[in-house]
Design goal:
The chain is mainly β. The chain has 2 domains: 85 residues, Lipocalin (Beta Barrel), CATH 2.40.128; 67 residues, OB fold (Dihydrolipoamide Acetyltransferase, E2P), CATH 2.40.50. It has 1 helix and 17 strands. The protein is elongated, with a radius of gyration of 20 Å. The model has no long low-confidence stretch (mean pLDDT 89).
C-alpha cells in the first residue's frame, strides 16, 4: 500500500496487486497510452487529457508531472515511511547532515556548490562521472556547505568524503 499526496489537500491510498490497481479502494479505471519521451495520453470517464512526466526522483519517492496543462508534484509514502510518521521519526534522519561521500569510484566533472552556500534536500552538489555516466550527487538534507574536500577533475574512491556541512 502507498499513500500518495499532491500537497496537503489531496491524498490517496493506492494498492497494487496481481488483480490490478485500486485508488481509495476503487478500481483504477484510467486508460494510459504511452506516446514516448515521458508523454502520455490519458482517458478517464470519457474525457481525454495530455500528460507529461517532468521529473522522477526515486530516492525521494516523488514525481513532477503536467496533466492537462497543470503541474503537479506527487509524493509517495510506503508502509515504512508511514510507520516512521506514526512513530514521529519521519524527520529524524534528515534533520542534520554532516557530509556527503562518494557512492562509487569516479571522476569529479562539475562542482555546483561553494563553501558557505545554503542547500536544501535534493539540491545538486557535484557531478561524478563513473563508467562513462554522469551522476549528479544531491544533498541528502538541508544544510550549509562548510568544506568541499575535492577539486574539479579529481579521481575519488568509494566512501571518500566529498562535501562537509556546518
Amino acid at each position: 500500500m502507498l499513500q500518495v499526496s499532491a500537497g496537503p489537500e489531496h491524498s490517496w491510498s493506492v494498492d497494487i496487486t496481481a488483480h490490478g490497481i485500486t485508488v481509495d479502494d476503487q478500481p483504477f479505471d484510467w486508460d494510459l497510452v504511452d506516446l514516448g519521451d515521458g508523454r502520455y495520453h490519458v482517458l478517464w470517464q470519457g474525457r481525454s487529457y495530455p500528460a507529461e512526466i517532468l521529473e522522477v526522483d526515486a530516492a525521494a519517492k516523488s514525481v513532477r508531472l503536467k496533466l492537462a496543462g497543470q503541474r503537479f508534484e506527487l509524493q509517495a509514502k510506503d508502509r515504512f515511511d508511514l510507520l516512521l510518521d506514526k512513530l514521529g521519526m519521519s524527520q529524524a534522519a534528515s534533520n542534520k547532515i554532516n557530509e556527503v561521500k562518494a557512492p562509487m569510484p569516479g571522476l569529479i566533472v562539475d562542482i555546483r556548490v561553494q563553501p558557505g552556500q545554503a542547500v536544501q534536500k535534493g539540491d545538486p552538489l557535484l557531478v561524478l562521472e563513473a563508467m562513462k555516466m554522469e551522476n549528479i550527487l544531491k544533498s541528502p538534507g538541508d544544510g550549509v556547505v562548510s568544506t568541499i574536500k575535492v577539486g574539479l577533475r579529481d579521481n575519488v574512491t568509494k566512501g571518500q568524503v566529498l562535501v562537509q556541512f556546518a
